[in-house]
Description:
Order of helices and strands of chain A: EEEHEEHEHHHEHEHEEHHHEE
Strand content of chain B: 15-25%
Largest interface: A-B, 50 and 45 residues
Number of strands of chain B: 12
Radius of gyration of chain B: 21 Å
Strand order of the largest sheet of chain B: 6-7-8-3-9-10-12-11
Structural class of chain B: alpha/beta
Shape of chain A: globular
Oligomer: heterodimer
Distance between the termini of chain A: 36 Å
Helix content of chain A: 25-40%
Number of strands of chain A: 12
Shape of chain B: globular
Strand order of the largest sheet of chain A: 6-7-8-3-9-10-12-11
Largest sheet of chain A: 8 strands, mixed
Distance between the termini of chain B: 35 Å
Amino acid sequence: MSEAPLLDIVDLFKAYRLHRPRPFAPHRVRPALNGVSFSIIAGRSFGIVGESGSGKSTLARIALALDKPDAGVVRLEGRSLFDLGRRELRAARAHMQLIFQDPYGSLDPRMRVERIVAEPLAALGGASRAERRRRVADSLEAVGLRASDAAKYPHEFSGGQRQRVAIARALITRPKLVVADEPVSALDVSVQAQALNLMSDLQRDAGVTFLLISHDLAVVAHICETTAVMFRGRIVEIGPTAELFASPAHPYARELVDATPRLDRSTTVAPPLNATPAPASGAGCAYAPRCRYARPRCLAERPELTAVAGETRRAACHFPLV
Amino acid sequence: MLLEVKDLVVDLPTSGGAVRIVNDATFRLGEGESLGVVGESGSGKTMMALALMGLAPEGARIGGSIRFEDRELVGLSEEAMRALRGDRIAMIFQEPMTALNPLHRVGEQVAEPLVLHRGMSRKAAFHEAIRLLEHVRLADPARAARAYPFGLSGGERQRAMIAMAIGCGPRLVIADEPTTALDVTVQARILALLDGLRHESKMALILVSHDLAVVAAHCDRVIVMYGGLIMESGPVDVVLRDPRNPYTRALLQARPEPGAKRGVRLKTIPGSPPHHREVGAGCPFAARCEWTIDVCRKARPPEVAFGGVHVSRCWRAAELGPHA
């Protein structure tokens, strides 16, 4: 069993139906995921970066079985989530939890922290009162809060502490996988560091593996061993985080790295957009219209993910940069 | 000097009495210069920007002096302020979707200041708006002018906002977190656009941001604010290389850098930014600062100058040698 990846995602497709332009007209569809596959090994946190509309949040929802794909398979420790019965799916959910972006909106202001943190337990069929209390206390202490904080309401905490409460809630079922969608982007810089250090500790000490979704490369690089870069519903590059950010192979990954503000150099700015419209057929590379390295082949033929720069990295580009 | 701000104070009324949001802010800005204002939530940076625009909320009390083009703005009538706003001083907001009117075409809104301040006819102003939209490099300016705000992407809306701001050739543009809601690739292009506009027209820019790295790449000078006070100010490269204030230092060290080793411990600042009412007589950062001594809690720290242009507000600034 230790051979099976913690999470295995195979060839996911998902499209959302948009409003009809007029009654009885055919629905237009917007593809959100277009054949996404990757595996997460237990103990090796995985990052996904990309811009808005890249499909990264759709992927998070499907990975947690909160949404169904049009096609494709999600396996948690070898078991396909969408083939499970309701009760089995509930049990499987104990092993995976979600941390939301907004520590203000995701905690019910009328509930005491004890009830908020214990919520996932109830969904699993409940526990005795004493057991509940003990596990809430354990969970709060694991994130650096006090057991006595259980009696407080969310408004009594600062933003950073609230995000800790949200993390404590995610940890109470002792999940193996925690999906974190932009977990620190709503936090001030001075508070963000506390949350990132906590996530590092949980990886090391509590055996939590993160699937971390963020637009911020520095945050992903801080937590994740492997990273996938998504663009328009596809993975365009995947590999060890440090290598990928040091020398991106896909021109989009390069653009992301160059655009990230850093203190040690001024930001390199890509030239203005090419005016070339996207190929209507969807035949070529979706990034080609924006790509400064695009050649005719890029518009005609879609590149598949293939190995670049050794065994560990793959990029979907006909003319990779490394 | 284009802008001279001296001892600027902004007090906001609350149910528990007036609260000081901006506390004795003093700085100057020359023609064509760019100044970054960095701070976290509650630092007072946005309120300071709004006060410069004469847009502080109803009931706010503004003290001190704001001299713009040798004219005192504090106490100026709303009518006189309106004549300046959108003409000599313009502002770019974080979320163009809320700053633009959803019911009017983008081109009409970009044209509005031209009708108001330049007395152009609506038709001529609309044509000029298309030219401005082209100038901010919107892909299809004629289409964008006829579109409604929701028909544009976030980056396109922000470009439209910039077009509206620069229409009358302002001498000062204040941008409050202009790229925070945008993807990093779009952010880089918008900031490059602002750089370009500044260089070609010699307008001055105040860039308000929570991100030191954004300011580092696009500003000549920086002000770091905390709890309503300017904690440190000076040329960007000097302040980043040789910060003389514990808060600036902590901010620099708390930030994960791309390229750093995975899992490396970030320096944390205990606690979180203060609410305004929590700021007492002493240094607003005292409760979180590792350099705090008794006097920090009791009295407001003095301004200590390093080489004339670099100033830190800290009781122990002199002890904070180059990266001590």
